[in-house]
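Researcher: Good morning. I'm working through a list of sequences from a screen, and I'd like to move beyond sequence-only analysis. For each chain I'm collecting a predicted structure so we can compare shapes side by side. This is the next one on the list. No need for commentary yet; just the structure.
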Amino acid sequence: MSFDAVIVVGLILAVLVVIVLLARKRAGAPRGSGARAEAYFKAMFPDLQPHFHPEKAARFVRARNARGTVADGDAWRAPPGFATASAVIALASGRERIRLRGERDDTLAEFGYRRQADGGELLIGAGTMTVNLAETGNPRVRYRHPEREFDWSLRGGWRFMTPVAERAIEPDDQGSRFSRDSDRSSPSSGTTAAVVAGGAAAALVSGAGGAFDGGGASGDWDDGNAEAADAASADAGGSTTAY
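Model: Good morning. Structure tokens for this chain:
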């Protein structure tokens, strides 16, 4: 074999090694740690804090469906998924309403519940959180609200959308990226997505993004919105942002 042929073979092997290493890195770890996406969740969905993280909702739906038939007034001590003292179930006209109660028997949150073949729906104010448990070990949660929405899965992570964003926002630990997907366009036009923390506008992020692989880890839900506002501001500085 000539010297030139050896060089060519060596280059080909080097390229193959790089491809394999990159593939293993992607398979072995999420594209982001999930911290930034969790902060976005806190900022964009203050009405879901602190109880309605999608991973918590998935645990609750699994346990609620396993519980089977319930009666009006049933009190469920320490309901799975929720760090509350109890969940009190009310039935009216075939509809199920659940109140999360604290140690002092005060109402912490309230939502409607509808069981489905592969999971269930949590009706939270104007929003609907749909939990799909069809895939073993990878619950999928979709939240739809007139003003904002997200998709989440344990393995796939987060995808955020607001009505004024053309495509989903894709936050990661390096900043916000925008998806190449064009099939998730919003009914509304425009290109800015409002990120709100604690009821105040934290930033306006240019809209368009894709599925974020945040590893599905739930963060610390008692940290408040300071981290969320900081993350939103940091992203705003790294992308086309309007204030």
